[in-house]
């Protein structure tokens, strides 16, 4: 039970999140938590260990016992804080939640400009957030708050990409249903995000695991089926026996699964595919108009990999030298080099391979194939690796010159790219050259570099030039002496005329493998008739097709997905014919739900449509989309593909989903210092070590390290240089920083400011806990400047120390320079320099005798997107009853931005003795007064009689003195 003072009702909706919020609660037997909100009710919680429930898990199950002892104010006062963030932050988080401050209404004034700012929504893992996560979230929150204050309708939502393998693996290991794990993880993530003061519209929260959401994921799949964009095919896949599922290429690292490190093999399986290749040209062309980092656009261009060339056929020749009906089709971007093709290479998975094997080579080829299927595509195509292959024992005829050339099988050729076969031209391709040299295959030079010597080839030449050794009377093709491009065109014409091939545009992009042998994913809405095997889409009126409850999530071991165990769910009937049928037991990949979630945020409660047309037309496209660079290709490419399909069928009104994409840099763990030691335990300077692996290494605590020039050395022995490295945060390295701990010690506003102050948003940065103290001091100085100093007991006065007086010109200039800089830097996402501008303002304000209220109110509004909790509290203390979230953001007045001071030379009897800084409109009396106070000038005036003063405003002050007569100068 939770006990509070009887005069204040503690809101139950806040209680839901309390157990998971270490920012306000410390779930530790050694500490006591504090929560304050609005009336500063003090609540003391004691949490006992949680019992495991066999029924539904809820957030409240995490709290089994709470005692309501009164808070000891005297004990709390012993904790000295630079400012009372521990009271301010829970108070305003509660206020925002109670008042739904950041809710974007369903019905809005569409005459106002809109701003849709979106984070790449997270996968809610059990580990919760680390300090790297809030980097992008803080940036989008600053933008959202800034645009609200500028009068925009702002859409700033948050949700969860919650289907996927991690939850399923955890379920297998622990016996906990993935739904329970996912719910618990979401609750933890949500509470952590709320503790950081992000201005999300939580009424729009979505999860990809909710049937009301994945109903529309399934609906999109049905639209893809209708248009022939979803189909089934037998394809080689990454099969992980231990996980019992197909893995995407990006989930396989060095031949093992990314999760668990289990061996992965290649094997053919019938799978659902999405025909993304049908949109390859549009995906490529529309990149040009996007405000995305050029590096991301180039990565997508390379992934799509459009190339122009030719497809041509090589006729197979059997062991007796007879031509067979079999043909091997290859794709090449260099048809001009056809005369240089001295062998063919088939991928190990090529369907024709078994039929072009000689009896003598059959065993060797099969053994090679077995080895090849255990390698990932990345391993097989790695440029640095030694090329391997096996001769098939058969030949093919080069259509250009009629020569018989050997057919090899090699794993550096992929069945998933092009035709799964290549014509190898070792004279003009590095990989082919290495292979030919290794296996003593002939090399025929057919391209001479312009200006080069055609008789002195020692290494492959892959560039263009002039054709040589490239004619045949038998085929009638002669391209000798032609430039490469002209020769390529002539070869294509000859291929098409002779029936040996045709011009072809090809792509590296492959159709999207869209099936997973998992339980925890969206069911694919298709049934298969028992008698014919025909696939029939589920009626749209029957959606959502929900997941059945399963107790056993383990892999079947046969390749059948876990859903196949749910017999009562799998066995069904075709509603139209009444025939027996079975449901599809594969599920969709995790990518599915994240392809279109940005649309659902526009209209999350709509039960009759994916998104309302009018709302979509107003909010589309997403104005700013922020996330990690690891999603630069696949997620963004898949989302763009689905969006274009939805555009074609009239669901969306824009060709592209994301107008501007920003990749925030990663935050590395704190720098770790390592010293090298020899076998005797003596320290060795790192600059004298050739191979680190040959020496023992010892971690050195930071307090034993000092900087020497550009390097770090041991304090006790500066001759020993250390290795200083910052690594990506991971549990295995023990360098993960929990934001809850940072917030507990410094407050959420300090964490937000520090992450923005570390450096440019797009750059990678190294975490340094001591660095947060600088921005924490800035906030404390701002608080003390505006509120006043605390009493000896640590209590701050009510209200503020501002005065209702007209500000001086100097104060207005200082403010408006700050306004201009902060505005420019927010708009340019240069948040670190915006913070610097506010620090400069506070430094200037500390020199003022008085703080005009109008100046401080404007500064508080500038601070609010960065440090919203403190800003709200200061705004309240300044006499305002409402949140500042929708107050107009200050605008810089150009009149105060001009540099209105000049450096005025001061002369004594025509000789310059010094300069003074004065206003352009400074009077003669004021100029003389300032000059007589200047130490360089005053010594020439001391005791002298002034005959006259010559003053040209803004130009010069000349004081003429009588050198003989001494009088006391009036100051």
TrEMBL record:
One of its GO terms (cellular component) is mitochondrion. Pfam families: Anticodon_1 (PF08264), tRNA-synt_1 (PF00133), tRNA-synt_1_2 (PF13603), tRNA-synt_1g (PF09334). Residues 301-496 form the Leucyl-tRNA synthetase editing domain. It is an enzyme of class 6 (ligase). Residues 120-252 form the Methionyl/Leucyl tRNA synthetase domain. SUPFAM superfamilies: Anticodon-binding domain of a subclass of class I aminoacyl-tRNA synthetases (SSF47323), Nucleotidylyl transferase (SSF52374), ValRS/IleRS/LeuRS editing domain (SSF50677). Keywords: Aminoacyl-tRNA synthetase, ATP-binding, Ligase, Nucleotide-binding, Protein biosynthesis. GO terms for molecular function: aminoacyl-tRNA deacylase activity; ATP binding; leucine-tRNA ligase activity. The keyword ATP-binding applies. The keyword DNA-binding does not apply. It catalyses: tRNA(Leu) + L-leucine + ATP = L-leucyl-tRNA(Leu) + AMP + diphosphate. Residues 812-919 form the Methionyl/Valyl/Leucyl/Isoleucyl-tRNA synthetase anticodon-binding domain. Its EC number is 6.1.1.4. GO terms for biological process: leucyl-tRNA aminoacylation; post-embryonic development; reproductive structure development. Residues 507-690, 727-756 form the Aminoacyl-tRNA synthetase class Ia domain. NCBIfam families: leuS_bact. HAMAP family: Leu_tRNA_synth_B (MF_00049_B). Belongs to the class-I aminoacyl-tRNA synthetase family. This is leucine--tRNA ligase. It comes from Nicotiana attenuata. The lineage of its organism: Eukaryota, Viridiplantae, Streptophyta, Embryophyta, Tracheophyta.
